[in-house]
């Protein structure tokens, strides 16, 4: 009995020592994973051990334990994405410079600067239409009836009622809304209005022309109610009918930009006196200069 008791007493310190070693190793792994300064000290040794213990092209068990494998894969993925973005950035800068040079050579008349007012959607109003918004900008801020409401997604609607400090906007998702649109790639024209399933419906479609699945639908500017080129949505085929996924979703409408329609005025009845008359045009024929009259 005395011998068994003595051997049991001798084995207890060994167990305690073993538990202490395991606890120290666990704490060391935690520190290596969480403390950047300590992690830098152990990186060379950990990398060498991991390379030696890796089987073939596999991943070392130490990297799996510390989570370094997932981090390295994510870093490589982000580096590849950054390289792709750098290429697209260079291509975009080159294309922008080329377009600017072409516009200068062709003396292209660009769009006039657009004035507008940024307003917050303060409430949804249950007025004569089912889907309207109420913005906190009105006549005193320069808003006028017919202003178009847009946000970061695209076309939201059009001002139909105006107050001194508020405006009611009829959304494009309402059934009573009518927006002339065209396909960005196909060029097909139609009239868009709000549907019952959360998507827009189309009418006055040509019989032969078809939209391209997923292409953007832009305002055509016909009728002068909406400026040309605003993003209204994308074309989708549902149940054999073309429908519209709206670009400006209702849940994302927080701020809107109220802008006037950019209508092109007809020519004046009395042309400006600054125009050069044909009798004042001179042509150089080589032998001399002669004046061309009417």
Q: Which term fits the overall shape? A: elongated
Helical content class: 25-40%
Number of domains: 2
Portion in beta strands: 15-25%
Number of strands: 14
Please report the distance between the alpha carbons of the first and last residues: 137 Å
SS field, number of helical segments: 4
Write the CATH homologous superfamily of the largest domain. Rod shape-determining protein MreC, domain 1
What is the fold named in CATH at topology level of the largest domain? Thrombin, subunit H
CATH class identity of the largest domain: Mainly Beta
Report Rg. Answer: 35 Å
Strand order in the largest sheet: 1-2-5-4-3-12
Any guess at the CATH architecture of the largest domain? Beta Barrel
Description:
The protein is an alpha+beta fold. The chain has helices at residues 2-34, 36-53, 61-66, 68-106; strands spanning 117-123, 132-135, 148-150, 155-162, 167-171, 179-183, 189-194, 200-203, 216-219, 231-238, 241-246, 255-259, 281-284, 289-292. Helix 1 crosses helix 2.
